[in-house]
Amino acid sequence: MRIWSYIDERWRETETGTDAPRWYDLDRGDADFLKALGQRFGLHPLSIEDCLSPYVHTPKLDDFGDHVFIVVAAMVPESAQPEPEELDLFLGAGFLISYHDGPEAPPSISEVASAISEGVNIRPGVDGLMYEIIDRSVDAIIPRISAMSEELDAIEDRIVVEGVSGVDHHRVLELRSLAGRVRRLIVPEHNLMLRFGRGEIHLVQPSNQVYFRDIYDHLVRVDMALEELREDAEVALGTYMSALNNRMNEVMKVLAVVGALALPATVITGIFGTNFDDIPGLHSNWGFAAMMAAMAAMAGSMAYIFHRRGWF
Fold first, then answer.
1. Which of the residues 55, 89, 100, 279 could staple to 70 if both were Cys, CB 3.0 to 4.6 A apart?
2. Which residues, other chains included, contact 200 with Cβ-Cβ below 8 Å and sequence gap of 6+?
3. What SS3 class is residue 97?
């Protein structure tokens, strides 16, 4: 558990005996500390139960009067693509409690902690501190979505240039599924930020409300980017299927040409293979050579005509 206190108009990583605003950051190993803080600040037992649950909850906001419980989506540290995890926040009149399941803090927590340790100015109050955390959580998604879009563009370019060979279409399905999963978590967060931005939560200072509306704008942009990503995935899959069909058509065309060239030989051998004695050239020394020459001539003539017409 890490503790920051607001002393002399700045946040310091220390515990103080005064009534100064505090920020507590906990992970799964601090379950006992969370329960102790729950008794100290009167946190609702259901909220603590949601924090300790192993399941990822949909973003929500529960207003208990003297404090609110917020669930937002955060990013798993060191992940190249959006891998959402749950970030739980308790906001009170003079305290902020952040809880995450992983032993390593999400990038948003780490960035805010690093900023205040370096003396960077942030929004005033514990609600301003919560804004900084949520804002960075949302902003952390955008570059990862951009990386996914670039990967899809690269896959589509390979399909167009190289065909289906060496293209992993399962990766396209994975990206589309991931975009849908992240979008389902992000969309409910819109209403949360609107409630903060409209002044419905009395624990948020009026001067900070506009900044939560800014988070809402970022969430809308993220939602649009995820929707475009899903559309790009559909386009990439459509391009892959078209390239696959074209390849199959080429194979079928070659097989059809081979079958057509072999057809005269099949007809000739079928005729001369009948059980009759009076077949012209049957007992001739040059009969077999003449038959083979006729087969080759007919096949060559057909191949020449097909080639002139651009069939292969």
1. 89
2. none
3. strand
